[in-house]
Design goal:
The chain is an alpha/beta fold and 317 residues long. The protein has helices at residues 8-15, 40-43, 60-67, 71-82, 99-108, 119-134, 162-171, 214-218, 274-289, 294-316; strands at residues 6-7, 18-21, 30-31, 36-37, 55-58, 88-91, 111-114, 137-147, 150-155, 175-188, 191-195, 203-206, 210-213, 226-228, 231-237, 253-256, 259-268. Helix 4 (71-82) runs parallel beside helix 5 (99-108) and helix 7 packs across helix 9 (274-289).
Length: 317
């Protein structure tokens, strides 16, 4: 599997961090791990299991500890930490950068960033940003839309009407994420997220009309950059010889990057309003998330009805 990276310069921009000291290779530094580290133990001279490839976070605790030390001791500890050539040191809470740290950063050509945010907030943001960028990914042919907060990935043969259906959904107030090519990433445990390649973002191809700019026609509220995928909708032309699910009891899934995503097959033919069907599919999926399955409740109701009928017959006999 291809190994992806995240530029330190891009992280700095996304984090809106202030650059206190910029390394000479700042634009070329790449981050390959989504884990970050608070080097409290390392500042106490414990370097077993230390991972220098991680971004290092300095919180109030580490900062206060270092400020209470004599200057020579601070120099020694910063020197030992930065000699491992870490990608960057991020100072949280707007902690002051002492002369000892600045000298060491210059010595080892290490980037120092600063942010006013709390350590836990910075930590969660950095992890989220990095993991989104370095996540394993694939590109699938299809259309990704958000309907009532549910991410629907529409797949099927070319010309089956996926893009046309997306336009109808946009007119009904829903949002487009990607058309034709969907970049899919694993961003967390059992969570896959889709986006559009930069080149074709916000564009839809309609046969007979050509390419249209969705954001310009429908407004910025009709598009979205990212969306978690909750349901894969396989759209196919109606086949009389095919057997389609009529109750929905069976939960079918499709494997995407090792994660099982619920899937449904929706046949289309003249007279079927596919946009409305997809809206119902999205609402039905939301109900399942909340613990209600209409198909199961329906079968339970039938079972109760049959039991009552059997009891009535028994009493009559």
């Amino acid at each position: 599997m291809e190994l992806y990276s995240y530029k330190l310069s891009k992280l700095t921009e996304d984090l809106r961090a202030e650059i206190i000291h910029k390394s000479t290779d700042f634009e070329d530094v790449l981050i390959y791990t989504g884990d970050i580290h608070r080097p409290g133990l390392q500042l106490a001279d414990y370097y077993e299991h230390f991972e220098p490839a991680r971004v290092q976070l300095i919180g109030q605790m580490e900062s206060s500890y270092m400020e209470d030390l004599p200057r020579e001791e601070r120099l020694r500890k910063w020197d030992k930490l930065l000699s491992h050539k870490v990608p960057a040191l991020v100072m949280c809470h707007g902690s002051a950068v002492t002369g000892a740290l600045m000298e060491t950063a210059e010595k080892y050509d290490t980037t120092i960033l600063s942010t006013q945010s709390h350590t836990t907030e910075v930590m969660s943001r950095i992890i989220r940003l990095i993991r989104r960028e370095i996540a394993p990914r694939i590109t699938r042919h299809g259309v990704l839309v958000e309907v009532y907060g549910v991410g629907l990935l529409l797949v099927g043969e070319s010309g089956v009407g996926k893009s046309e259906t997306a336009i109808e959904l946009l007119k009904r107030g829903h949002r487009l994420i990607a058309d034709d090519a969907v970049e899919i990433k694993v961003i967390d445990v059992n969570v896959v997220q889709g986006t559009s390649p930069d080149l074709i973002r916000h564009y839809v191809e309609l046969r007979g009309l050509g390419v249209i700019d969705v954001r310009q026609i429908f407004g910025s509220g009709a598009v979205k950059d990212y969306q978690n995928i909750h349901l894969v909708c396989n759209i196919e032309l109606w086949r009389n010889d095919a057997k389609y699910d009529r109750l929905g009891i069976t939960e079918n899934t499709v494997d995407i990057l090792g994660i099982k995503i619920p899937t449904v097959t929706i046949p289309v033919k003249p007279g079927r309003n596919l946009a409305v069907i997809l809206e119902v599919a999205a609402m039905n999926q939301r109900q399942k998330f909340m613990g209600y399955n209409a198909a199961i409740e329906f079968t339970k109701q039938i079972d109760r009805h049959m039991e009552e009928r059997m009891l009535d017959k028994g009493e009559t006999l």
